[in-house]
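Question:
When you can, review this sequence-structure pair and walk me through the tokens.
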Amino acid sequence: MRFLHTSDWHLGRSFHRVSMLDAQAAFLDHLVATVRERDVDAVLVAGDVYDRAVPPLAAVELFDKALHRLAAAGVPTVMISGNHDSARRLGVGAGLIDRAGIHLRTDPATCDTPVLLSDPHGAVACYGLPYLEPALVKDEFKTDKARHEAVVGAAMERVRADLATRGAGTRSVVLAHAFVAGGEESDSERDITVGGVSAVPAGVFHGVDYVALGHLHGCQTITDRVRYSGSPLAYSFSEARHRKTMWLIDLGARGEIEAERIECPVPRPLARLRGALEELLDDPELALHEQSFVEATLTDQVRPAEPMARLAERFPHTLSLVFEPERTGDDAVASYAQRLKGRDDHQIAEDFVAHVRGGSGPDDLERTVLRGAFDDVRVDEGVREVAG
């Protein structure tokens, strides 16, 4: 059976205030064309269909047209909700849409109810694990701790229990939206850390022939059977080196995997330029970036006059301007943003406590209180979304 694995469409998202709707429409055209041209048997969409819980109307219309085209092609589509989606909203009408071959899996309680597909070699059971917010689903899965590994592990136990009741030789596919250990992050993914633990070990998915992952925006292989497709478009300059693709997966009669990357259209390449302003304006080797989306980091000791306007004369699609003067001496003069780079919310809060106390950081009890406060905020956000 041949699957096309994609994820993280983020319909409705912009790129530094530039609308990406046309680029997203071009990607969906490409997806449908690939389905037809490569004889795809089923499409797997591993979450973050939309960029936010209440997407703009134009994004909803784009999604609606894509579903109609996939249904008209007669190719089943299995789709789960991600952490950016509203599971309740995305799942509206799932029972009716199911009859058209569009299978929405947004309810954690039904993660062990597969979409059953078949080919000349027999049955394939496709299980959808929507994004599992630990604090919201731990009661459903009866886990002692609100941790990603615990709830995903419990969901997979249900999947394996159901799979054991299926006929001999039934192959299995799982869609999941999570941060699996070993994956490489970028700047455009929303942090899903709860309780300081977000990573799920790849071993939690053992016993499954293929795992189609979503959440991380870079296409990557965790194991031969556990893969991220990545987002089809770049949504931050940290993705400038990404090769945006989908996975074309051939699942053999005995669960063998053959994988091929299918290139996605690039609306405009990304370039991250660094140097003094005059160097960027005069360097002939930078001519190839003149039509790229540009992030320019200026290293001038003194901030030059009208830098954005001057850059735009040569690089009209400059979207981001960063100032990082080349310094000498100790790190005390580093910018605030630079000092925070790579640190999560909990570390930043602890650093702040240490700063106001003259270097004395929080004790264990205070760390617990801080961490609990961050977790409560995440839970409140999830409850409001479910209630909405």
